[in-house]
Here is the input.
Amino acid sequence: MKFRLLLGLGTALLLLLGYLFFFPVQVDPVSWRPPRAPALEGKYEVNNNLSRLLVLYEDQCRACEDVAIDNQGRLYGSSVTGEIIRFDGRKEEPELFFDTGGRPLGMHFDFLGNLLVADADKGLISINPTGESTVLVSSHNEVAFGITDDVEVGRDGKIYFSDASHRFQLHDYKLDILEHRPNGRLMEYDPVSQETKLLLDDLYFANGVAVAADQSFVLVVETGAYRVRRYWLKGNRAGQNDVFIQNLPGFPDGISRGSRGVFWLTLVSPRNPQLDKLMVKPLQRKILARLPEALQPAPERYSFVLGINERAQIVYNLQDPRGKFALITNVQEYEGQLYLGSLADNGIGTIQRPR
Here is the structure.
């Protein structure tokens, strides 16, 4: 009896080891030594500045990833259900503006009143004020967008958007982070010529996008590398790129241009020390990818927003360690208020813009 029990346990152990070491997975990790995470002190000092945040429309927009605001001051939230919900303060009930049938992430209005949507599944979509939609583009050079992530419009009408990963889709976004290969792209779409141009590739999970007030550069977040990259649109460095800010204390997600020369950058979660240690160990990360999702690293409930000026200096540091409204993915500034979207929480967060 003992022999058969031991034999059964041994067989189970061999099967488990075989699964952990040899079961096929999508990821092909590479070794990367991330810079040492900065301490949450000094310019990143822990505070409760976001604890006074209010949550609007709490049960009316599930995991509102992004917020857009039209020229009438109405709020639009991109729900995990695929719906884009419009909130008009003059009406009691929200309105269904459009259902993409996918997963709308970043949103931005163009100068004609069309809502541009980066839909992770569908591509770059334009929705006119009457609710009619057009898919502007869903691939480039015969490579489909895996996670169309964020979008912004330049003063000349050109549209800048990110493809976070051409290898993975949104439900497998963690695999892209674990693999740490540069699968992301920054694109430009010209609505006049209807042509799409690749501005940058080899990005580590290309995420939020923002254009400078003087239109001289566009910023794109690299979530997987803890940094923000800058692509120059004008001047002597036009066509070149450099790092705008790096070694952030968390996973950067959304970025948007606010007032007075400030960019609002969200950190969806603080850095994970265990994950940082694993980044130099491709084999262990491959084993980690075989584990159930519940056993894989997950974002920490924490609220974190930075205000950064055009010289890449931190001028605002907004946090809430308790994560009343957590996993913040984007910020939109409008008439002295900040409106925040979340990867996990429902509704739209709001707080007065700090002076």
Remarks:
- The helical segments are 2-22, 173-179, 273-278, 282-290.
- The first helix runs from residue 2 to 22.
